[in-house]
Amino acid sequence: QVQLQESGPGLVKPSQTLSLTCTVSGGSITTNYYYWSWIRQPPGKGLEWMGAISYSGSTLYSPSLKSRTSISRDTSKNQFTLQLSSVTPEDTAVYYCNAVHYAVIWGQGTQVTVSS
User: Fold this and answer.
1) pLDDT tens digit string along 7-62?
2) What is the C-alpha to C-alpha distance for residues 19 and 25, in angstroms, rounded to an integer?
3) CA 98, CA 103: separation in Å to the nearest integer?
4) DSSP string, 48-116
5) 93 and 8 in contact (C-beta within 8 Å)?
6) I need a surface site. Which of 39, 41, 54, 73 has the fewest CB within 10 A?
7) What sign results for the dihedral spanned by CA atoms 64, 70, 76, 79?
8) Residue 54 is inside which H or E element, if any?
């Protein structure tokens, strides 16, 4: 069974780049027709889809975040990563990675706070 685990710093300073990693176990990120996404939830707000990387390595980003977002993968480590540049306190959120195939599988989420 596929499982996902987010990791990264819990505190990032304004204007810096936020970098998070999602480690996948129980399956390969190159398995056909899997899509691997990053989603966030700011305090008191709903879920926001940020972008995804496919089993083949192609990427898709939310138009509102595209200029600041990059998603990449390391197939040797079975991981995919999120980089969000020029962060502000409005980027404070719980960040989730998930996998979409026949079902949606979520990581447990990780809190990221943007503050000086």
Assistant:
1) 999 999 999 999 999 999 999 999 999 999 999 999 999 999 999 999 999 999 99
2) 20
3) 10
4) EEEEEEETTS-EEE-TTTGGGEEEEEETTTTEEEEEE-S--GGG-EEEEEEEESSSEEE---EEEEE--
5) no
6) 41
7) negative
8) strand 48-54
